[in-house]
Specification:
The complex is a heterodimer of chains A (317) and B (357).
Chain A (H helix, E strand, L loop, with lengths): L8 E6 L9 E5 L2 E7 L5 E5 L13 E2 L5 E2 L6 E2 L6 E3 L19 E5 L2 E5 L16 E7 L3 H10 L5 E3 L2 E14 L2 E10 L14 E7 L6 E7 L4 E11 L5 E9 L5 H6 L5 E3 L5 H6 L4 H15 L4 H7 L5
Antiparallel strand pairs in A: 1-10, 2-3, 3-4, 5-6, 6-7, 7-8, 9-10, 11-18, 12-19, 13-14, 14-15, 15-16, 16-17, 17-18
Chain B lengths: L25 H5 L11 E7 L8 E5 L2 E8 L2 E5 L20 E2 L1 E4 L2 E6 L27 E6 L3 H9 L4 H4 L1 H4 L6 E8 L3 E12 L2 H6 L6 E11 L4 E9 L3 E7 L1 E4 L2 E8 L6 H25 L18 H18 L14 H4 L9
Antiparallel strand pairs in B: 1-7, 2-3, 3-4, 4-5, 6-7, 8-15, 9-10, 10-11, 11-12, 12-13, 13-15, 14-15
Classes of the chains: A mainly beta (317), B alpha+beta (357).
The structure holds FE2/S2 (inorganic) cluster and fe (ii) ion.
FE2/S2 (inorganic) cluster binds next to loops of chain A.
GO molecular function, one term (chain A): oxidoreductase activity
Protein name (chain A): Rieske (2Fe-2S) protein
Keywords (chain A): 2Fe-2S, Iron, Iron-sulfur, Metal-binding, Oxidoreductase
Amino acid sequence: MTESGLQPWWIVARSEEVTSREPLSVDIGAQPLVLWRDAEGIARALEDRCPHRRAPLSLGCIRDDGWIQCGYHGWSYDGATGRLKQIPNMKGEQRFPPVYKAQAFAIAESGGFVRVCLDPAAAAPAPEVSTMALSGTAHVAIEQAAWIAALYDDPALLIDIRGVRFTPYLMSELREEGGLLVMERSCQWAGLHWPAPFSADFPITVLTRSDPATGRTELPLRDDQFTTLLTAVIAPVPAARGVTAVRWRAEVGRGSGLHGRLLGLGTPFAVREAIDAAALRRSKPSASTHYDDLRARLATSSTPGATAELSRTPVAA
Amino acid sequence: MLDILSRPQDQIDLQHGAAPKPATSLNAVNNWVPHDIVMRDSWFPIAHSYGIGKTPVRRAIYSQPYFVWREGGKAVAAEFHPAEARMREKSIYTDAAGRYPVMEHYGVVWGWFGNPQAADPAHLPSLPFLPPQGGLPKYMTATQRFDCSAPISLENLIDLTHADFLHADVVGDERSDSETIETFYDSETITMVRTLVNKSVAPIMKFFSGIRQPTQNVRQVIRIYLRSHCAIAYGRFEPGDDVPLFHPCTPETRDRTRMEMVMNTSNAGLLFRHIMPMAGYKVSRQDSSMTSPQSPRYMRPTARKDLHSRFDAPGQRYRLLMQDLAARQAGGDFAYRDNVSEDCSDIIGLRKELFRF
Ligand code: FES
Ligand SMILES: [Fe+2]
């Protein structure tokens, strides 16, 4: 996945989405996965393909003992190893050769996110620091790379922060900072005011800090006193058929003014399910050009594995 | 017990003394590509007799168009619609007039796909539980569609262990005292016999046949005519009824299947007789929920082998036989080495006294 050849950890689900009631089907690119929680409440990830007759395991069910059972002929698998545990009607003969298993993937859960690495032997990632209370999932009909490019060129096409209007003006252009790609964009409060092109100062900025391997982006919204009004973590993951699955979590900061208090009501953050495609094609690649350049430079200049390593490093808030 | 390196176990080889030397490797059995298989020189069910009248209807076998109608009461099938402006060449599958060989038997219209010269009623599958001249009530028939390749649909059928999960609400769960599976085959057919002792009673029989006992002994037979993709599914339930089903899987395209179903419930009680054929509508959607996502995963070769249990011996034998037949056809050999029209009553264990025509 990364240029260095190491597989990154992808945020494929929010903790709330992974249950022991029913399996969850997700994907990383063309790789379908099934997620669920076993009897101990531990999140598990297998390839969403039963090795018996290739039926999707996500159509099956989770047994009381925590194994996942295929809905077609009832074969049951253990989530930690993927090993076949039971074939119905086999009575006493329930010991199977080691090749009898489904593909298991490395999985880690922290900060309200479930992360999967396609390399089963991958070292566990550093945990996320805290769990933000607000969260959501949006599926968008656009390739992940194009989604990230649009995030840098015109975030209003993709996300919505209540009362906030993104401007085309930047406080700082995209640069590399501690292995992350960082940019700061000026924003206005919605409402009637002097138009952005003629404004001397802007009351708020949105900072974006992206992991170059996965596009996981931390997004703090700050006012001119450097008070954090809102923080969001957005994880765009390539899914099947060119769809991007975006999972996000957010929390409201300590803003005291009218606008800050308004942000505290309900859910002030959203990732759009639908994109204004006509506006998207008109938007010009500006910041995203730097994004691509920097990403390429990071990949070649870093020692092998460094880029992927970045994706395991949580961004301090 | 489980061995991915062993060939499927032969319990009994009916027609030959010993298993014929297969042309197909074991690897190919465990990662076969049924999507690539096209069977020629065979009769395929294309319509229920009652479905064909004076106006042409359009059917397809492997995407090849079949326009079917009646001329003087006789079913005919042509490559071109009578009103069609000919924009394409005639295929090799029809005679000079663009007509396919057609038969009408068992209440079904059959179209021949292959060399028209080779069409012969001797190659029509034996279905001894259906009246040769047709005439079963319409409620015992249906048309069902599956968006999967025909061999995937037949594999589904020949491994009945799936029924305990997918169709538990209709046929009962997997609990039984014992389960044995036997396979019989020749170069054109495969027959699987599944015997269950004290199996949980099928809910549908509990409710509609008034069976009071908690368990029943079950003998289920699946017989597949490889070339025509026609199957017989015959269940004998003690206590309970005899339910023989004609389950053809006509490949309209390589990955779309049409089933002109006929279930002869004439011997069952009034209620069950009507209800059981209707259960097919539910059962086929349950099957489809698995075979439809399955089928695309069998469209391209893969190095990964499917796993199997001893319950899969018939399914693996089916794969092997299909591949052997396909390999022979690829080599230009379309001859029948075994007779598919010979009465199969004994092989399927048909209680003939119940089905006299
Ligand atoms: S396909 Fe999963 S048990 Fe058969
Ligand atoms: Fe079925």
